[in-house]
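quick one, 359 residues, struct below
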Amino acid sequence: MKKAEGARIKAKGRKNPLIAAAFLALSLSLYPSAFSADDPRYFSSKAAGTTTADFLNLQVGARAAAMGGAYSAVSDEASAVYWNPAGLVQIPKLSAVFMRAQYLEEISYQYAAYAHRLSYDSVLAGSVLLTDIGAITETDISGGILPSGSFTPRDQVFTLSYGKAILEFSDKDIDVSVGVSLKYIKSSIVSSARSYAGDLGIMTYNFGDIPYRLAVTATNMGGGLTYDKESNPLPLTFKLGAAVNPFRNLLVATDIVLPKSNQPHALLGVELATTPNELTRLSVRAGLNSLRMSDGLGGLSAGLGATLHFFSLDYAFVPMGELGSTHRISLTFDFPFRSPIFQRRDRTVFTKMKGVSFK
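---
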């Protein structure tokens, strides 16, 4: 920690308010075809159905889902692998998340992630996402059932992530972190398709009188999936996120989402918590998705959460309008006890734990 503090003091005054903008520009320069004119429908309401692998957009973690997905500037445990790998630097020594989601009809999916701190400023993590769509009767073009009877579509996503705090841009008032992820994607319908993709994320933490976080992410940057002859692009998505703690136990978060497969829209999430004692935390959450507001209650979400010592149990209820309702339950394990970033004794994302060595 002495090395970290020394670098932070040396870097004092080197704040850069344009970090997020610079990172977005870097993301676009690394993936210049994102806004190319190969299909003018991209990034608009007319783009629905123009990308493949929509399972990459399935929300993970019941806490995040209950907050409407407004989580890119909040992610502070192992699920940051999905939301923003830059958030991994907030974990204590280790963090693990296990989630099961009962989606529409017979569709379900499972998610597991594990993150481990390598040093005071770096974290390595991995995750796996598995979908189960159930058996589908296989028919020919005239509707006759084929001898094979049925097929079972499945999707798999394996992700490896690395998050690191950037000492050069950090001082006593601001911490900055970045994260990268590499994904291996496999999807099976009748035939199978494989691809690779990458995510980039950055997060800044301001420890002023009203603490807040800012985030920028670029996810699913990569080639498309080819089931037969034609390749379809992945659902590339850019997000600008912010989260603020106006009061000690109140968290308000928002994301501006720019998806390649749809029009830009906003997400809003709120979490109200109470702490009966130092190691217990009870939370109520709600979220709003502006893209689905015209679909009855489809744009709303809600959930509950309870943290007891090392474990957190979270539940989310996410209605999907006329399609029905979905439910998510997740269990998070953090060791040692993970307190919210702005409630730590040391005003920094660099974890300091007595008796723990990172040599």
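Confidence is low (pLDDT under 50) at residues 1-18, 353-359.
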